[in-house]
């Protein structure tokens, strides 16, 4: 059971715990064929290459994150792909410049020298792009480090994003394979977060992986998000932190947008619910590492607005149902137990902790402390105490709310809460002939 902002009460029963990818369209293919049939006419090839780069630049904006503004801090390179911005000083990236590399990628004035084959083996877009004859370096290129043996490509991405993305192909190759294994043998003691990716890495690798059609990179990081933004109650109960360890609460907005970008609906119910727990910053969004402002799409803001109201109501109803004054089957002294249940129900609105749980949408937090406080003398019989306990009605209600999350958040998810253990305990707590 995840909690946010470190909030989490202890529980004795707790088990402690796409791709609408940018396909190279037919016109690109046609253009490529035309180039082949034209032999090696440099001028035509160069024009075609630049047009392809331009098209990818346009697609970049097509797949921009919902709500992501174009107010990039760094001047985006002209998407004609032909030249650096006049007067711009290019700098080698200190980390991702391999002297024996054969491909120079230029983004936001930063040059990365990497290995063409590593990219083309994973990225259909880079494969297409680099299969075309490369433009001959013109005057504008002379101040960078490209050479006849090094293709040079200008991209409209930010250097921050590109750096994260390229790491997945160089020293990061092992990294993204690793994040789905080592990091998840998590216990309370294993909170050092060494192996956990931060939001900027996850976001950049998914966005650029999507743009350049690197399925393995995208899937790896989506799988990472799925470990936290789960789609079944059993997994929900096992997750010990609400957000990935190196994410900030505001990054929930980014997670929703990544789910939208990749069509990963299963992430949305929990990610949107998590957004509902944000304050006014929900509308403000956040600045990405490269200065880009990222906000929720308007439709998702509305979903949060409506979803928060639904979830608050559901939390109230759940509390009412947990403490309703129907005694348990086999109750030892029904009159006394019924009286306690009525007191539990009546005093809910006077209990600040319980009310705060409802306001904060902590629908799965333990309410046993409240029971113990109201019924300090333990007038409830053992059977009724068990019934209102965490393995009793509390469990029923939190499972019910989790099951309804997609509906409350206004999204449709196939196989939501399937394969969980929601159906394995069908205990009838109340007596059929209860008072
Ligand atoms: Zn009883």
Write structural notes for this entry:
- With 435 residues, the protein is mainly α.
- The protein has helices spanning 26-37, 42-62, 116-120, 124-131, 159-167, 173-178, 199-211, 215-228, 233-238, 251-262, 268-276, 281-284, 298-322, 334-346, 352-359, 368-374, 382-387, 393-403, 405-409; strands at residues 91-97, 103-107, 110-114, 151-155, 286-287, 293-294.
- It contains 19 helices and six strands.
- Strand 5 and strand 6 form a beta hairpin.
- The strands form two sheets. Strands 1-3-2-4 form a four-stranded mixed sheet, with helices on one face. A two-stranded antiparallel sheet has the order 5-6.
- The chain is 45% helix and 6% strand.
- The model is unreliable at 5-45, 58-64, 70-83, 136-146 and 182-191 (pLDDT under 50).
- Helix 13 packs antiparallel against helix 18.
- It folds into three domains: 1-17 and 161-265, no CATH class; 26-62 and 75-157, no CATH class; 302-409, no CATH class.
- The protein binds zinc ion.
- The site of zinc ion has 9 residues, from helix 17.
- This is BTB domain-containing protein.
Outline of the structure:
The protein is 45% helix and 6% strand. By secondary structure, it is mostly helical. The protein folds into 3 domains: 1-17 and 161-265, no CATH class; 26-62 and 75-157, no CATH class; 302-409, no CATH class.
Mean pLDDT: 77
Number of DSSP E strands: 6
Poorly predicted ranges (pLDDT <50, ≥5 residues)? 5-45, 58-64, 70-83, 136-146, 182-191
Proportion of helical residues: 40-55%
C-alpha Rg (nearest Å): 27 Å
Distance between the termini: 34 Å
């Amino acid at each position: 059971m995840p909690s946010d902002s470190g909030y989490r009460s202890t529980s004795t029963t707790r088990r402690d715990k796409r791709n609408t990818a940018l396909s190279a369209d037919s016109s690109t293919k046609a253009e490529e064929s035309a180039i082949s049939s034209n032999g090696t006419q440099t001028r035509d090839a160069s024009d075609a290459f630049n047009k392809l780069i331009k098209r990818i630049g346009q697609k970049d904006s097509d797949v921009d994150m919902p709500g992501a503004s174009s107010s990039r801090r760094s001047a985006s390179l002209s998407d004609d792909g032909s030249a650096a911005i006049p007067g711009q000083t290019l700098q080698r990236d200190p980390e991702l410049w391999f002297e024996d590399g054969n491909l120079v990628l230029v983004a936001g004035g930063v040059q990365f020298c990497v290995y063409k084959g590593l990219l083309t083996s994973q990225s259909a877009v880079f494969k297409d792009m680099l299969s075309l004859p490369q433009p001959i370096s013109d005057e504008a290129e002379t101040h960078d480090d490209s050479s006849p043996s090094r293709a040079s490509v200008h991209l409209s991405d930010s250097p921050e994003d590109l750096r994260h993305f390229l790491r997945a192909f160089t020293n990061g190759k092992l990294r993204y394979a690793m994040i789905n294994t080592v990091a998840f043998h998590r216990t309370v003691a294993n909170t050092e977060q060494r192996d956990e990716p931060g939001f900027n890495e996850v976001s950049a690798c998914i966005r650029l992986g999507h743009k350049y059609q690197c399925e393995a990179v995208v899937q790896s990081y989506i799988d990472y998000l799925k470990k936290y933004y789960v789609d079944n109650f059993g997994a929900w109960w096992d997750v010990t932190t609400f957000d990935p360890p190196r994410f900030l609460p505001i990054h929930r907005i980014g997670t929703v947008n990544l789910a939208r970008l990749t069509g990963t609906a299963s992430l949305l119910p929990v990610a949107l619910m998590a957004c509902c727990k944000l304050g006014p910053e929900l509308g403000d969004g956040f600045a990405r590492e490269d200065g880009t402002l990222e906000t929720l799409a308007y439709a998702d803001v509305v979903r949060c607005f409506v979803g928060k109201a639904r979830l608050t109501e559901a939390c109230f109803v759940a509390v009412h149902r947990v403490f309703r004054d129907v005694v348990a089957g086999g109750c030892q002294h029904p009159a006394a137990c019924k009286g306690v249940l009525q007191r539990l129900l009546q005093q809910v609105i006077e209990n600040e902790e319980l009310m705060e749980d409802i306001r904060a949408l902590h629908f799965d937090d333990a309410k046993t402390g409240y029971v113990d406080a109201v019924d300090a003398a333990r007038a409830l019989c053992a059977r009724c105490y068990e019934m209102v306990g965490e393995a009793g009605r509390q469990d029923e209600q939190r499972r019910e709310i989790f099951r309804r999350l997609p509906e409350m958040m206004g999204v449709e998810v196939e196989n939501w809460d399937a394969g969980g253990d929601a159906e394995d305990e069908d205990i009838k707590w109340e007596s059929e002939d209860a008072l």
